[in-house]
Amino acid sequence: MPIWTYIWFMARAATTSDAFNAVAEPQRRRILVLLKGHERSVNELARALRITQPRTSKHLRVLREVGLVRVREAGQQRLYGLDARGLEPMHEWVIGFEQYWNENFDRLNEYVKKLQQKEHADGKRR
Amino acid sequence: MPIWTYIWFMARAATTSDAFNAVAEPQRRRILVLLKGHERSVNELARALRITQPRTSKHLRVLREVGLVRVREAGQQRLYGLDARGLEPMHEWVIGFEQYWNENFDRLNEYVKKLQQKEHADGKRR
DNA sequence: TTGACACATGCCGATATGGACATATATTTG
DNA sequence: CAAATATATGTCCATATCGGCATGTGTCAA
Fold it and tell me: Is there contact between B23 and strand D, defined as CB under 7 Å from any strand atom?
């Protein structure tokens, strides 16, 4: 039996499959922002985000599994720290579009005009 | 009844809720890449991605709803074009972490050394 | 008008999700 | 040792997802 038989039902990629998925959740993005510069304990994060502790722990678990955060044991606390290296691929991907969202109106208008001309030139092609 | 009662069951944010979610799906990222520079028809995209046409159409719908692509009718075809402006917020967010993944080895080593020292100082805790 | 083509959408099924809540585990303190 | 504290995890629930497949709609050409 071929492999794809088993992976047929892949309703949606797991949040732990990569940084893109992990970071799609707003609370997790907020956590990463809070972790800039210094470590924080779970309760500290929960209070800052105004969400429950289990909820915070679960989000941290996802971030841990994709390697965006590290944990350090400190007594009864777990101090979470940022490991932003996993975000670089996202940056690489998105920066590849910079020239397109920066297209100024002149170029955009020119582009549209060109399209219209082409449409005209083609006439009723095909 | 308070509003949160109705939004209690938010299993997972809709893929159409923002660019972050829309772009979490690999095929949709590939579509956007294929759309750099020029428009493409649905079948063209389907062939390039080697996926079925309905599947392609569904991904395009998501991208359309978050405003990352535009459609233009051309006879019986629909030509999809990139509208990358919606990616700028993603870039803004991720670029805020650049200094952290760029932390050079000196600082990283220093950090690790500090951790080890602390661990040592703690003795054989636990 | 009819057939061919391009595309969108509806239905079905299995899945992982995120939240609330309760509970388990481990550490510190008295 | 017991209570308190910090954290992780398991269960339950409603949902949206993505994939395949079938079908509907619209356009073009003969």
Answer: no
Rounded to a whole number of angstroms, the distance from the CA of B91 to the nearest CA of chain A is 6
Alpha carbon distance B25, B61 (integer Å):
13
Element (H, E) at A78: strand A77-82
Number of domains composing chain A: 1
Q: What is the pLDDT of residues B45-95, one digit of tens each?
A: 999 999 999 999 999 999 999 999 999 999 999 999 999 999 999 999 999
Helix locations, B50-126, DSSP H: 53-65, 88-95, 98-101, 105-122
Which residues are registered as beta bridge partners of A69?
A: A82
How many Cα atoms are found within 13 Å in the side-chain-facing hemisphere of A119? 12
The spacing between the Cα labelled CA in B42 and the C1' in C9, in angstroms, equals 15
Contact B104/B111 with Cβ under 8 angstroms? no
* CATH number of the domain enclosing B99: 1.10.10.10
Q: Is strand D less than 7 A from the beta carbon of B12?
A: yes
> Which candidate, A37, A12, A93, A28, places its Cα nearest to that of A66?
A28
Give A125's contacts (C-beta < 8 A, 6+ positions apart).
none
> Could you list the residue range(s) of the whole structural domain that residue B33 is in?
3-122
Predicted local distance difference test score (pLDDT) of residue A83: 96
Contacts of B101 in chain A (CB under 8 A): 84-88
Cα separation, B5 vs B15, whole angstroms: 22
